[in-house]
Specification:
The protein is of the alpha+beta class. It has 2 domains: 4-11 and 102-160, 2-Layer Sandwich (Alpha-Beta Plaits), CATH 3.30.70.860; 14-98, Alpha-Beta Plaits. Helix content is 37%, strand content 28%. The strands form 2 sheets. Strands 2, 3, 4, 5 and 6 form a 5-stranded antiparallel beta sheet that branches. A 4-stranded antiparallel beta sheet has the order 7-8-1-9, covered by helices on one side. Helix 1 packs across helix 2. Pfam families: YajQ (PF04461). Belongs to the YajQ family.
Length: 163
């Protein structure tokens, strides 16, 4: 019998992020506490999102609105890395980026965790920006998934291609 396996990835559905951004933009334009503050949210390139407002507390509140929309769309906040408010002229800006892919450093941490605490006979190998975990027993793979879900590696993890 062939080994069963699954992939550990860190990916974000860009369409869902776009939907969250549009909902946040709509809320910023209609909420009474954002009227006259120049609060806005928009894409800046492929992976960056820029929030702007005329006051520091309003740009922070706009960031909270956006984070709330991400949570509603089942996107982990670990996948969005927001910077600090920066003043430029009369406006404040927060630039955030989407974090995707597992770095080699994080992949090594995850595979070490699987080796140290996972069931015997489970193999983990790094494949680019993802990690392939394989074993002869499917129950062992389930144990590895629950082990990784209980651990915080600082990135959003998804488990795909379970076969």
């Amino acid at each position: 019998m062939a080994d069963s396996s699954f992939d550990v990835v860190s990916k974000v559905d860009r369409q869902e992020v776009d939907n969250a951004l549009n909902q946040a933009g709509k809320e910023l334009s209609t909420r009474y506490d954002f009227r006259g503050t120049g609060a806005s949210i928009e894409w800046s390139g492929e992976e960056a999102i820029v929030l702007t407002a005329e006051a520091e507390e309003r740009v922070k509140a706009a960031l909270e609105v956006f984070k709330e929309k991400l949570i509603r769309r089942d996107i982990s906040l670990k996948a969005f890395d927001a910077g600090e408010p920066v003043q430029s002229g009369k406006t404040y800006k927060i630039t955030g980026t989407l974090v995707q892919g597992i770095s080699t450093e994080n992949a090594k941490k995850i595979s070490k965790k699987i080796r140290d605490e996972g069931p015997k006979g489970v193999k983990a190998q790094v494949q680019g920006e993802e990690l392939r975990v394989s074993s002869k027993k499917r129950d062992d793979l389930q144990a590895v998934i629950s082990l990784l879900k209980g651990e915080d590696f600082g990135i959003a993890l998804q488990f795909v291609n379970y076969r």
